[in-house]
Amino acid sequence: MRIESQSGEISKHKVDALVIGVWADGSLPGIAQEVNQATGGALARLVEAKEISGKCGDVATLLAPAGVEALQVLVVGMGKPSELTRGVAFRLGATAAKTLATKPRESVALAFTSDWKDELVESAVCGALVGCVGQDLYKSERRLQPFQALHVWGASEGAMRTGRILGEAVNLTRSLVNEPPCEIYPAALADRIQQAMQACGVECEVWDKARLQDERCGSLLAVARGSSREPRLVIMKYNGGLPGEAVLGLVGKGVTFDSGGLSIKPTEGMLAMKCDMAGAATVVGAMEAIARLKLPVNVIGLCGLVENMISGDAYKLGDVLKARNGKTIEVHNTDAEGRLVLADVLDVAVERGATRLIDLATLTGACVVALGNDVAGLMSNDQTWCDTVKASSDAVGEQAWQLPMFAEYGEQIRGDVADIKNVGSGRWGGAITAAKFLEEFVAGKPWTHIDIAGPAFLERSKPYLDAGASGAFVRTLVDVARHWN
Predict the structure, then answer these.
(1) By residue range, what is the domain housing residue 17?
(2) Do both 183 and 103 map to the same domain?
(3) N or C: which end of the chain has fewer CB within 10 A?
(4) Euclidean distance between the first and final Cα of the chain, in Å?
(5) Is 143 a catalytic residue?
(6) Is 265 a catalytic residue?
(7) Is 294 among the domain residues?
């Protein structure tokens, strides 16, 4: 998609569709006023008749309006000016794009207003790129069609470039998650990560099964044992800061398919388990964006890639595993596998010099029970670092909520046979006991865990995003890196 800045008389701009905005109280920003004048006051009359609403996200279409060269004008409600944030701008751009992408279009003009700050413009452009891409990767006729060109009114080159990079990074994550598990298995995903990192100049190292054995990654290897697909660990390194400066460590769970192992899932619970590598895909998308934006920060990204399958060699309930850091683990549930993968990957991240850590994982159904499908859970051993991550998620409009990490939760994972066990005592507080398990492997480094089990994969479409992979928290990670130190 070409993305170009435009200016001049909006009504004379020939495009397939022109997107403008209206405020919640019905008032028209400058560009909408220009369209209103060109149409002889039609826009104001429709607002007054309540045919057009300024409620945030509401959409109305004017087909071939007289006085305007665009074939149609899409009017999007922008809500209250005081409530316009980067998150809102993202959704406005995505809503407009998804509405228009139901048929092929050569050109679309995005003209909410000409006086938005760069951070709002980049968010809207990012949203537009994300909104017009769907999950139907293998349909002969796709439901959503990306535009050939996007004309952004009054935008700076920097804002458009950043918006493009963010949108393409989110879509990279979404495409990896939306691919079927027959295409995305550990070795195949490692290859795709290498290709993506080579394209943006990021160093990439891949550990195969033999190297994982040499590195004593007993916890990760146990999960992989039941599959004919061998595991991988991918290490990405971006050196944008000075030598010796702090290193941001991003760690992602990459279970490319999760059957539950011997603690097998029912069909309904297994159908979407291609998405269990969304944490890893999120790290990949963030690393691509950080590198393309040339941010002045040192970042290391690590992805543990396995399939959790059933065979005669699958790991069993009652097994005792030895993790890379030497801790022993009792297996009480083979469907609590993501934390076993992350245990070894977090240890590698610490050894490779990460000074502050964020891990992302579709880790627990318990987090979805607690917070619903749209909100991620935050858990941390360092309140200042957690506040930093939360500030970035708030800034970009990706919803997260902090859960407590009281010592009592840690007592629930103490083992009888080994040091710790891979589930807590009973059903309660499962998202937190999983995080307490991960805390055992960060060596006291400031660390925040983001459980994205809810928002990473949408069961149903939203007005601004197709069902399937959402790419959630790519933008949060990039924002953390942009404000590093």
Answers:
(1) 2-155
(2) no
(3) C
(4) 34
(5) no
(6) yes
(7) yes
Domain boundary among 86, 120, 155: 155
Select which of 216, 265, 352, 462 is catalytic: 265
**Same-domain status, 461 and 342:** yes
Q: Is residue 164 part of a domain?
A: no
CATH classification of the domain holding 190: 3.40.630.10
Statement to judge: residues 188 and 127 lie in one domain:
no
3-state secondary structure string across 56-99: CCCEEEEECCCCCCCCEEEEEECCCHHHCCHHHHHHHHHHHHHH
Task: Point out the domain boundary residue: 140, 155, 170.
Answer: 155
Give me the number of domains the chain comprises.
Answer: 2
Residues 6 or more apart in contact with residue 468 via CB below 8 angstroms: 134, 135, 174, 177, 178, 457, 458
Domain of residue 64, CATH code: 3.40.220.10
Query: Are 230 and 124 contained in the same domain?
Result: no
Q: Does residue 165 lie within any of the structural domains?
A: no
Q: Are residues 125 and 190 in the same domain?
A: no
| pLDDT in single tens digits along all 485 residues of the chain | 999 988 888 889 999 999 999 999 999 998 999 999 999 999 999 999 999 999 999 999 999 999 999 999 999 999 999 999 999 999 999 999 999 999 999 999 999 877 789 999 999 999 999 999 999 999 999 999 999 999 999 889 999 999 999 999 999 999 999 999 999 999 999 999 999 999 999 999 999 999 999 999 999 999 999 999 999 999 999 999 999 999 999 999 999 999 999 999 999 999 999 999 999 999 999 999 999 999 999 999 999 999 999 999 999 999 999 999 999 999 999 999 999 999 999 999 999 999 999 999 999 999 999 999 999 999 999 999 999 999 999 999 999 999 999 999 999 999 999 999 999 987 899 999 999 999 999 999 999 999 999 999 999 999 999 999 999 999 999 999 999 87
Closest alpha carbon to 186 in 218, 222, 232: 232
